[in-house]
Every structure is written in C-alpha cells, then in structure tokens.
Amino acid sequence: MTAYLRSWLFAQAPESEGHLTPNDVPATVEDSEIPTISTISTISTEDDDDSSTVHGDDVNDVPPSFPALNSAQRLSIQKPSNNIPRVLTDAQLMPPPPVPLLAVRQPGVASGSSLAVPPTTTKPPPKPSAKRSKVALAPGHGPLDWANLKKSGQDLRGVDTLLRVTPSMLKEHRTRDDAWSAFNGKVYNITSYLPYHPGGEKELMRVAGRDGSKLFALTHAWVNLDYMLDACLVGFLVPES
Prior knowledge:
Pfam families: Cyt-b5 (PF00173). By secondary structure, the protein is α+β, with helices and mostly antiparallel strands. It is 26% helix and 7% strand.
C-alpha cells in the first residue's frame, strides 16, 4: 500500500523544484499520516487590460443632441405644419386708417371714413308737430282727490246695474252734465271725472257719447284706465240688435 501511494504522489506532482519525488517519501509513513496535497492553479495577468472593464467601444464626452435627429419635434421645426395657427401682431389685426383720411377728416362732418360721426348726432331733433298745453286744475281736483272721491262711497255710475250699451244709447249721453264714453269695450260715466282730468274738460269731452279707444291709445296708452275709472263703470259696449 505504501509503495502505491508513493507512486501516485509522484505521478500527480509536477516536476519542479520544491515538489516531492518517490525517493523523498519515507517508507515507514502510515496511510493516515500522508498529507493531502492540493494543486493551486494560477491565473496569468500579463494579458489583462483595464479597458476590458469598460462597457462600450465608442465612449466619448459629447452630449447627445436634443431633440434627437429623428424626433418628431425636430421634424416639426424643419417642416412646420399648416395646422398651427399663425400669431398676428396688433398692426396686422387692425391696421391704422390711411393717412389722407386722417388729414382731411373734420370733426362733425360726414366723410367716407367709418370713423365719421353719424349724421343723426349732428342734426337737431325734430320739433313736435303740436304742443300740449298744460291745464291748471281747480284746487281740490288732483289725483289724490280723485282717489279719495272713489273711496268715499259716492255713486259715480248713475245706474243700478251694469248695462248692455249700444252705440245709439251711448250717443244720447254726450253733454257736460251726462257724459258717457267707451274704452276697449267698456262704457264709463265720465261726468264726475271731467274736472279731475289732467288734460282738461275740453279734451275729455271730445270722446263723450262715442268710442274713445283710438284717441286714448294715441294720447296716453300707458295710463291704467281700468283702475282710474273702475268706480264709473256703466256696462259693456255691444253692437246694435
């Protein structure tokens, strides 16, 4: 057994200085005393290159172009799209008027320029065709006095019940002491209201005994006639039977 181990160690060890030979192993070495010799493989570093640890072959310090050469931003800069709106300056949005027009234009005189004053502002307003004269009412015949008279309970109708008044019946009441008039299909006894009329008794007597709807609309259509003469209602205007 000893001879076998001696030949095996000799075959495994390299032939170099510092290694055992078959003659160097004593014959009396026991199996348990023979040390285990492990071989150490060395790595040669003569061909190592520091550049092998660098990843990439064409490494430099030049930064990449931005935007990229094949990017959509660079293509849009080189070839602007027609969909992008154009930004106009103030002069392009509203150019100034021509110089000759500004030089010859006079204030208040109409010209071909759109900056001229409209003719309606340079002409005086038309005068009214007819002047309405103010009528001085007698003391105690103002609007508040008429409102108090309606609330007093005095009979201003002159009839006991509402009537169906025909044009012929209406025509019979056209005097100063007995004056009826029709407005918008309603017949009123205007006798008590004559001295309270702001336009005077003469103007109100123009519609006595007939339909005064048209004249009332032309004179003062904004007046609430139904409220003004509600206590004087006689009846309703109907056609002749």
